[in-house]
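pls ignore typos typing on phone
magnesium ion + seq
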Amino acid sequence: MTAPALSGDGPLTLRDLAALDVDRLRGVGDARRRALADYGVDTVLDLLMSYPRRWIDRTNQMRISDAEIGAEVLLVVEIRSVEERTVRNRRRMVTARVGDGSGQISLVFFNQPWRMRQLEVGRSVAVHGRLEEFRGFRQMTNPLVDPIGDRTGRIVPIYPQSEKVRLSTWEIAGLVEQALRRCDARGIADPVPEEQLRRLGLMSRFEAMRAIHTPESMADAQSARRRLAFDELLRVQVALVRRKRELEAASRGVDHVIEGELINRFFDALPFPLTGAQRRAIDEITADMALTRPMHRLLQGDVGAGKTVVAIATLLTAVQGGHQGALMAPTEVLAEQHHSGITSVLADLRVPDTANLFGDRPLRIELLTNRVTGSDRRDVLAGLADGSVDLVVGTHALIQDAVGFASLGAVVVDEQHRFGVEQRAALRDKASARLPDVLVMTATPIPRTAAMTVYGDLDVSVLDELPPGRTPIVTRWAAGPLEEQAMWAQMRDEVAQGRQAYVVCPLITESEHLDVASAEETYERLSLSELAGLRVGLLHGRMAQADKESVMSAFRAGDLDVLVATTVIEVGVDVPNATVMAVLDADRFGIAQLHQLRGRVGRGRYASTCWLATGDSDGPNPRIDALVGSTDGFELAEIDLDLRGEGTLMSTAQKGRSDLRLASLRRDRELVAEARAVAFDIVDADLSMSANAVLADEISLLLSADEEEFLTK
Ligand code: ADP
Ligand code: MG
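k done
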């Protein structure tokens, strides 16, 4: 029987499908309509986009009589009887007798009383599990069970959670098939140009829709998944790329002069050659800066990769052409550290100045934090306003209203994850006519594909190469008391040789209060035991600023041997003489955080060790293993993504009806990059997207405002 085609001309768009209520399908009366609504399906589009959770490959199906004990098998059986009883240790056991005409076995489930409802006598189910023998009877314990009803076909789709809303998975399958048949006459519109599909080896959208619900083979189902995942990623990328291009089109930046004496003198004065990665990043940045379009670029680089040099090159590029540069750090301590570092590197540089008799004057670098007050502050502010200050280093005090620039040309924001979105926005707003170029630096490596989505409206440069001559940090896992003794022994040893050490205290909770208590407790305990006789200092976030500083400067000066600290040392503390770190209860930290912490050692010419202590916790610990096995932040970020499973972008709350149902940042890395490239092609060909109205419309249909906002943050 052929179903009546949906009327109209041309292929059906997703908008067309979204306009069709599911009750237009045969067999959907009031009760089913309500059940479908509870399932999240109101329209034919919702139905077609309710993808199977998995597929059962009946080509692998076995007959009971052919299945061997010990083998993992797929059987399709009918339920003959079910019973529930309580066994030893009050465990509840559900047992079902099932058969397939060739024989019978038992299915045994422990502590799953809901199986009584699922295993209705007379139903057909697919069971997947290991066949075992128990007291002479053949059985499976806790197998995977999927009711498949009267579904035939080689590959049977299983729809998630449908039983919760009184819909069987085969009822959904039946409705989906009916909907697909009704689309046959007109087909489903495909917004991706055919040549791109061919190049990427993707099937057409209608084929994919059919194949994901009714695949001919498992390979077919996987190809369908890939195509539809691509569509999801493409929609996200087009939204991001469009936003990016619109912002660029709406604002004018400064077209910097990128060749000049100043920057060359800076490079010449460096005691080392640039790494290839630094060269590349600087080229990418200066190429951006030369354009009138304002730069908005992310610089990713592991701890120690040499981001500061890139930052300075960016700022000097602005200064060279008569503009000003600003560097913003997340804390006052870091701002001061940057200020003194940059001042010493740039000490002898002179900037062109036609008003001056000699045609140039010394480069003027100032610090501006909340601690710069009184006449000093007035001085700096006046210099920023009249242009006599070339470079300013500060915290977000820099973007307070009172600060006016003569001509702000470039802004570098260090450690982006501590720096709010609004703060960045405020800085951009400060510039009246022309937007300064913005470079955001982060030491938290993000897998490239994740960066393309999380920072999708930014361009990304990566420092994926460490300067030569580093002694790699050895990381060791202290998994028990013996290794912990070795850890403290090594720490005492290094101190005896004049080196210094960090102890990072356990992270108790989100509460800073408890962390402080734990740090104090650890400090007292260690001072009396493992670290007795050493000069030990304590540093935590609740200390008064002045106390923090005096501890830090004592440690920097070598007047303290060991610094016991909370994670406040995570960012930016730079003491090259520190060669040992012990992280206590390391299993409470994430990979990224441990990697950041570890970066506090190995900053000098001495070999360094980072100990990760996990107390008595036994058993495998893949995160600790990862850190022991690699010091490459990008590799660790990839492992982290793998370990965290699906790597979905959206928070759980947003997942439900999210457009990212199939795409996974973990599995689909290559697809993310492809989607981004195609998105640039499409958007750059036509920002208004009038030539690809179908795609533009899909984006407004499927990407909620929430999601778009999330993605562009
Ligand atoms: P990051 O900010 O990325 O953590 P830094 O900019 O602080 O790293 O650089 C870390 C150290 O490496 C500094 O001591 C710096 O002088 C040094 N350094 C930077 N670039 C190079 C290079 N190309 N060759 C050798 N040493 C370098
Ligand atoms: Mg740095």
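The chain has a mean pLDDT of 86. The first strand starts at residue 54 and ends at 57. more later
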